[in-house]
Amino acid sequence: MKVSYLLGAGASALALPVVANMNDRFDRFNKYLSETFNDLPKANSLAASILDGIKEHATVDTYAKKLFLQDSEVELLELKFYLSLFFIFEQSGFYYQHFQDKTQENIVENKRYRNDSVDPRYDPFLASLLNKTDGGLVLPNNVNIISWNYDSQLELAYMPFAKCDIDEALSKLNAIPPNEQGNSGSSFVKMNGTAALLQNKDGKHFNAWRDYQYDLHEDFRDQIEKFSEIKTAYKIDMVKEMNKPTLNFAWEKYQPNAQRSFVEAKRIMTETDILVIIGYTFPNFNREIDRAVLGRFSKKGRKIYYQSRKKELDGLTTRLRSILPSEIAEKIEIIPYYDLNQFCIPLEL
Q1: How far is the C-alpha of 278 from the C-alpha of 285, rounded, in Å?
Q2: For 187-241, how does the pLDDT look when each residue is reduced to its tens digit (9 = 90+)?
Q3: What are phi and psi of 114, to 5 degrees?
Q4: Among 115, 148, 174, residue whose Cα is nearest residue 10
Q5: Global pTM?
Q6: SS3 143
Q7: Domain range annotation of the chain
Q8: What is the CATH number that goes with domain 3-15+115-196+252-337?
């Protein structure tokens, strides 16, 4: 029996901001930039301008869609770079500690395979599911994960198990992107890409920094300087030569990474018997994609476990049924899962 997970922002909520507190965390990030890189006024001015734009709209996704509709290509690229830098900061143990009263020695000590900025629920989740094989630690062949999140929470949680770097984690989890396609085993599909992953003009992927856990002050500085020069590069027609974030939005269907993720998600859902939804609210921006992906669930779908807060789940279930194919919308069994302390692992596994 094949089980697929569909993850939203709630699956990372114990470590990363959700919509309700996103702007506060952007404020904190900009404060970090201004305090740590006060010799880069151009970058700080650009970061402040982007945050002003975000705050003028309901969500950062709304602002991004507006830039897209206005054909503001360079501003949208700047926003993507800003979000990439933000998620590097949020998920890096070292940078996170910038706002805590600890010495650098305590921060760096024993941090190679541990990160305090990872949602603690991923640890028991992986401990329960990972299999030891000749090829290393892998998810079971009958388990797939589809995520709408930009973050690297699953990869970072996997690293201490396999004692590997983040590139190997992406490979072992068969993350798409950067991997080209799924296989006969499990896949980890990132519908919006990965905020901290870059892609060069030839389509090759690599990480914006070498390791999350150490003081990579100069590496981070290098990314910030590149971020501040996007407009200049665009004006002299050098933007095509730049390394760009693989982060994308649902409505950017023309992006190769988005297309690849979309195709793989549909393939996975065609084979899915049991669907587990964690912290995903089916936002309007993603509705077209969600309908196309969940449309494949009607071929085999038997049951859905929906994990979210109790006070919100009735409304979310109604929204889910409106997205499901009509032939199963009212027939499919949707089982509420209210315990937010651990990720749901269905009895069928």
Answers
A1: 18
A2: 999 999 888 777 766 666 666 655 544 455 667 888 888 889 888 877 656 666 6
A3: -135, 140
A4: 148
A5: 0.89
A6: strand
A7: 3-15+115-196+252-337, 19-112+218-245
A8: 3.40.50
